[in-house]
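Hey L., structure's done. Input below.
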Amino acid sequence: MSVGRSLFILLGAVTASLGILAAFVPGLIDFSNPTYIIVTVLGVVALVQAVSAATDRLKSTEEAATTRVVERRDPVPIPGTAFDEGFGDLGAMGRMRGARRRDEVRDRLEHATVAVLTRYGGLTEEQARAQMKAGTWTDDVYAAAFFATDVDDGGFLGGFFSTSITSESTFQRRARHVIDALNRRLITEAR
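Output:
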């Protein structure tokens, strides 16, 4: 039998005993003042609850409360981060070691350019690739020279001076101009 149930039985027995005493000994308990009775009953109930809570706590084996694990946000990868990292490492890798990385950057930029030209330029994929190969897909000569071999973007001297000043290779300069041209196109289309 639980402690709470035992206490309620005890409370019932005490209440019944008081009722019997009040019936046989008039004046022992004053029923004329209902406030006294209500306060007494509430006090007894509160005392029973306190004893029940204390008994449960003493029987418990837990020494401390366990709290829920706070949820944290998982970091979300930012689109294009891998491309930015690969693009940024091109200058430090040198011409020979970075060949594969340059091919990856070229492929991704080609794919992105075709996607932008077909989606926002109203071109088919073949038309977009033809414009890229002819260097007519943008007014930026550096961006146009990235995909077209016939476009003159200043040639050796322009690349030499640019590389001397910024330590940016010709490939990086052209790729950066492709990215800027695509960005301008997307901003223009978004308006």
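The chain has a mean pLDDT of 80. The helical segments are 3-24, 34-59, 81-97, 99-120, 125-134, 141-147, 155-166, 170-190.

-- N.
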